Amino acid sequence: MTGRIRYGGDYNPEQWPEEVWDEDHRLFTKAGIDSLTVGVFSWSLTQPAEDTYDFAVLDRVLDRAAAENREVCLATGTAALPPWLARKYPEVGRTDFEGRRHRYGQRHNFCPSSPAYRRLATALADRLAERYAGHPALVAWHINNEYGGACYCELCAEAFRDWLRGKYGTLDALNDAWCTTFWSHRYTDWDQIEPPNALTEHWRGPDHTAFQGTTLDYFRFTTDALLGCFLAEKEAIRRHDTETPVTTNFMGIFRPLDYHRWAPHLDFASWDSYPPLDAPPTWSALAHDLMRGLKDGAPFWLMEQTPSTTACRDVNPLRRPGELRLATFQAVAHGADAALYFQLRASRGACEKYHGAVIGHAGRDDTRVFHEVADLGSDLELLGDATLGARTPARVALLFDWDSWWALEISDGPSRLVRYQEVVHAYYRAARESGADVDVVPQTADLTQYDVVLAPVLHLVKGDLAERLEAVATRGGSVLTTFLSGRVDEHDRAFLTDVPGPLAALMGIRVDEWDARPPEFVQPVPELAAEARFVFELVLPRDAEPVATYGADFYAGTPAVTRHPFGAGDGWYVATALDQPGVDRVMRRILARHDLIGPYAGHEGLETANRVAPDKTRLLFLLNHTAEPVRLTAHATATDLLTGKEVQSGDPIALDPRGVAVLRLQ
Question: Does pLDDT of 136 surpass 80?
Fold first, then answer.
């Protein structure tokens, strides 16, 4: 490992003559670039025909990187098929949701069940590992790129049946799990099962299915099928290289793949950050914390971000001055040990030629973007190794569950207006803006270290989770869940008990009915000075006490929010989709009980994040996400690692617009 945050990005020098490479390395040095990601879409370069390999370009790139004391994250290049492969083996093309077999084109264009794809991709990974294992520049292996996309071809249909045999063992078990007595769907032979798509169980698109259990299992199968491709390449690499870490770049909060199923197989997590336009800072922060949580809190790599602008959207605004630095330090504050760009030099042609780059088409080093990148490189040099291997001392856990995400959004009723990610983000945002650090964890996580566990829209409850949540409350913790939680089991079958199913005892309530209204309907919640939308569950308290009530309709005065004392702690139930101010007020009450409201809470646009280094040094990040300066009062004696300035408790701290401070607390 280098003695600082790795800094660099995606580099595709095969587009230019070698004299340009010389200039690139001069500019890399000037910008503080020490790490290159190479070969991400190199399959047609490294294997121009089935029986021909050509590693001349990669040889020169890696050797030059070693000579310049730069590290290389080497990609296997298997994310986009070369034309010869698609022509010779038509089976490798995906069949889409509508049943159309795709011809050659674009990227992410392979069928994960194709024997030809598996064989040739694995063979290429094997050749690369055989050649470059032990190379002095090699620091990590990067398999494929941004895995995603489902296939519905006959190969995938047969693979799905095999996957189901492995999961259920017998057709009786499958029929029971999928409730196939409904609509006369009982299967008597495995070959009768078809992938759920527009030609079988779906209408109006991928989220409208007659059999949720079937579709849920196909989502899981797709996750495992693509994971199988990753594992085949990783196994090939490990035949030659048993030490260099292996990863693939995820896409943050990405619905199609359950990253928790992948996490045990990664040596470290990495992801590409391209947040939606006008998203609040907590949107990216949630994704960072999700990536950190994949490996039990270990640092991750920010594998891609743009230094200036994207090119894939209808409108692609520039990052404003200071935004790049702020976004990079946000990633570091949440656990990144590497900050890399797409792209280092702008592509000359095709659909990403206008995507932002450290070095533009003219190759200049006097642009605003280059200066910002270079200045950030200097900042990271000042930071040194202070954050490497650090951990987040969170006492709040947020349960993030792909099964619940899928099950909620493919459900018929009560409302398709509820979006899992938006509800989860609302509670995460409230915790973070109150100054609490948050671990984002799966249902299977060990919860014993947390004082507060948040489980919004936990639609699908698995295993012994309910008992473990009760244990959190019993020892004095607080557990929060919301409407549409505790509804179904792992097969998307309704629990044959009062709502919220296995969570009812902890919440101390019963729900018999729920109302759903169009988005323009607003239900007041007067005790919170808040508004609610979409879904309104009618709560019958058992032992729970009302905290807030509905203000309108025939259920006015009935609970919208309840608290149930449980052991030494409590369970909180929010029966509707509160607006952000309402969520904030509920969360403040919970966090205050556990002394988890941070000393800088209340400063709009200010983000704080705590890290603890391996030597137990405590670090506090202060991030000003506004275009105005912020004035604070230090709550502890500290040294700003970026300026060297020492502050005493009670001293003023000034943050420039989009400014950053990294305080080493004493």
Answer: yes
